[in-house]
Amino acid sequence: MTLATARGEKYLADFKTLNETSPAPEWLAKLRQRGWDHFDSVGFPTERRGNELWKYTNLAPLDRGTFRIQPAPHDAVTLDTARERAPWSDDWTTLVFIDGRYSDGLSHRASSSGIEAVNLSDVADSEIVQANLARHASPDESAFSALNTAFLADGAFVQIPDDIDEKTPVHLLFMTTPGGSRATFPRILVVAGANSRSTVIESYVSLGDDDGFTAPVAEFVLEPGASIDHFRVLVENERTFHIGTTRVYQADDTAFNSISFATGPRIGRNDLHTLLDAPGAECTLHGLYLTTNNQHMDNHISTTHAKPHGTSRQFYKGVLSGKSRAVFSGRVLVEKDAQKTEATQKDLNLILSHGAEIDTTPSLEIYADDVKCAHGATAGHTDPEALYYLQTRGIDATTAQAMLVRGFAAEIEDEITVEPLRDFVHRVIEATIPLLQAGAD
């Protein structure tokens, strides 16, 4: 084992403890070490000059923090608490993780589901896990994928059989408990068999107001003809750091439809990349983010078109107030063999205060000559004419502004096709609107 440099010394004790208390198969132990070695060599990307990926997001506060793996007892969270604080339906198949550890008592498998959803550590020796884990989210890719891989233990493994059309969602719920300065590294691997259809929900929920650091990595592998509806919900508190990495591999004639929803943590990042690696693949990547006070939300959304006849759509919307800041970095790469590609990008932002700021950089990088691609971004304040119109109808200014915010968010909210999840997101939006208005000018 290598000795930690100054970059990795804060996490070395927990890395040693993990290897002592959670032994892994030889291949996984080597993968963990590979992750640790890479993180130990690079550390967090705090240098922003010349670092385009982190130009608008300052990670110095994360680097200064000291976060430890501190799992709470399994009985620290009750089923009633999970139902109250997180998206929930007794009809779903749900895997629950408390402070990074799998909770069998809170997890639930729908009897009608034909999908295998299990704790990753229970199937670590299976061929399908060995063939796919860390294949698309390499530990050498970034400090965060490296650190997550170094601490690989419990996680979610979802295997969707060929030809299944499963309407029961699989919900992967990661909750952190009060206790202060917890670090968690959720891991997700989803393999969708040929010609399958399924729905996967991943959600991240803070149960307290303590600071914390969450660095999840999710890998989705779609075999030919597979289709996944994916929903990602982030409702951690304003003192947390959340750096999420999602990597999606798509074979021919696959469809990956993703909607993300986030109320900003102190610093949050949604790093999502889809690789359309065969003809006929398509992806739809939509999202909604709400930030206020001093929150910072960074959406780094990218798609690579590697083969012809692919379609991708990126559409994100943000509502900002207070002194919050958001980043949208959208990128579409069309490689030279990806003829007949269609790609669109759009980022729209509603800014409620003069102290809020959005840095939006949609971009197209095209090496093929027979494509249809477009991109655009806007940021603006609440339309004064619309506010005036509502007030002339007897609606007070505060209610009128709330109606406009609600209408702006509804375009993404209404795309959530799973009703209990849509109801949860609606409740969070309604609870957040007064906070956004409190920070408005």
Question: Can you put this structure into words, describing what you see?
Answer:
The strands form two sheets. Strands 3, 4, 6, 7, 9, 10, 12, 14, 16, 18, 20 and 21 form a twelve-stranded mixed β-sheet that branches. The mean pLDDT is 95. The chain is α/β, with parallel strands linked by helices and 441 residues long. It has one domain. The chain has helices at residues 9-21, 26-42, 60-64, 79-85, 127-132, 143-150, 384-392, 397-413, 419-438; strands at residues 93-98, 101-108, 116-119, 156-160, 170-176, 182-184, 187-192, 197-206, 212-214, 217-222, 227-235, 240-250, 255-263, 267-276, 282-291, 296-305, 311-320, 325-334, 341-351, 357-360, 363-366, 371-380.
Structural descriptors:
ten-stranded mixed beta sheet, 441 residues, 23% helix, globular, alpha/beta, twelve-stranded mixed beta sheet
Would you kindly provide a brief summary of this structure?
With 441 residues, this protein is of the alpha/beta class. It has one domain. Helices cover 23% and strands 38% of the residues.
